[in-house]
Amino acid sequence: MKIRGSSFVLLAMLLAGILMFTGCGSAADQTVESARPPEESAPDPGEIDPLESGTSGDPVEGSPQMSDLPLPDEVASESPEELPAESPMESPEPSELSPTPDGMAMRPVPRHLTMQPAPSHMAMEPDPGHLTVQPPPIHMAMQPDPGRPAMAPREPMTLPDALSESGPMLIAPRSDPIEPQPKPIELQPEPAAIKPVESAPEPMIPEAMIPEAMIPEQPRPSGVNNGQSSAYTTVKVFYGTDRAAETGSATARPVFLSWLTVTMLLAVATVILMLIASRLYRTAAARLLAVASLVGTAGLGIMTVYAGLQNGFSIKHAKPTSVAYGGQRGQLELGTCEVSIPPDHQVGELEAPRITRFEFREDPEQHVTLLDTYPIPAAEFYEQCRQRVEQSTAKGAFVFIHGYNVSFEDAARRTAQIAHDLQFDGAPIFYSWPSQGKTSQYTVDETNVVWTVPHLRQFLTDVAGRSGARQIHLIAHSMGNRAMTSALRDLSFLPDESRPKFHEVVLTAPDIDAEVFKNDIAPAIVKTAQRVTLYASSNDHVLTLSKQVHGYARAGDTGRHLLVLPGIDTIDVSAVDTSLLGHNYYGDNETVLTDIFSLLHEAKPPEQREWLRTAELGAMKYWVFQR
Hints:
Among the domains are: 239-248 and 320-625, Rossmann fold, CATH 3.40.50; 249-314. The radius of gyration is 57 Å and the shape is extended. By secondary structure, it is α/β, with parallel strands linked by helices. Helix content is 33%, strand content 16%.
């Protein structure tokens, strides 16, 4: 009975111990499970602990640091306010779990998390799903350990009221990586992010629709002048002409056709001679004649090609507004021309394409070229002429009258060349009468030079009265002296108060009957000019031929026919004129150009020009160029 009683007691005690052990384990599990927050439940705004940060999980100012947490025995006696702040966090080993006052096990804090103060400019971004938390005075940033992956922020936890009231709260480490913020952002009162306003791209406007005034002008590359390369100089000359206007091809085509006709006839003759020399008469004379004909045909063929190329390319430089003047008679017209002077121009040279250089096209950078011709009304003509005169130093102008066998184009080119070589800054003007521009049309030119006198007289009167020039010089060459001296002779009969007075009148190689000039012309023209200068040469073969045609001496001859007259300065250029024809020395010879320069610029008498030597013919003096 004793044994049974004691056994029963032991069995009851063992059963009670088992029940007590089982009940305590369940209560502890319940306590631990109640300390764990719900994983997917949304937090209530009223349950957010004021010590809890917003969304980033970073500690805020005033929250206890992990290293400063009290031991389990001191948790109930100390408050969070008495704990020191901003100290490094040292987490225990994973196996070290310190119980809380309520019996809850504290989860270990990873060793790699270190609390460091964040810069003052950092701001916390609010979670759009929760209440906006005001930023604390001092911001703290949590920087991850470089050795371990970064942890992304997660949504805040809602703690039970029992834990929030029991004492200091321990924040469990996050399982998701925290991504570092790329740049600090400022906390805005509204949770919605404000995107920067992007300016709309400017609409593309086609260039064709943009007004010309809005398009900036492209800078012209170095060397641009009036649409042409500025490697050459452009000289503007004024003209008056009584030629009839026509297309440029009309004046050049007859020359080309004449050369082509002669070449074809000679080619046929050459073929016949070669057949005769090879088949019928195999003699040395026949063969020599065939070779000579072949050489002549080749020479004419080259000249025909040259004429054809000039005919084809000479018009190419003309613009649509240009006008060409031929050899037919017309009305007096006025206008301006633009002529190019090449950069390597030599004084006295009238550069043109040469067949010996295989040049068949005019190039403004290599030749003196007529670029364009502009007919204008008389009022505009004299207005432009007056402006040019006012810009000059001496307020002067000169008028050039060309001679026989000169086209309008060649007259414009020669005028520009003279103005350039003489460095004349006034108004260069030329008068072009209807010369045929052909060697074989000498008699036609003689007729037209007489016909043009009234037009030239009117033109000279208008230039003297409407150009505004104080000094007007006249330069005539060859047959052009006939028209000029005849016009001056007519003007000499006018009263002194209405008679135009010219400054320097220069006669170069005058193709005028010497007796007529001596008796009728010379006494009249000296009344219309301040000085008259006559240039003559014994080497002028053109005047020699004219003398043979007319049978009498010309005013431009020298030797025993030299004219030395009162009021006229006669200058013999025979010593310096060594050209082939000796007729164009007024523009081709540099020495003569230098003498004309002294006349127009300095008005020096012959006695003061040191390159001249005084000679005598009876009681009269004349001057000779020194060798």
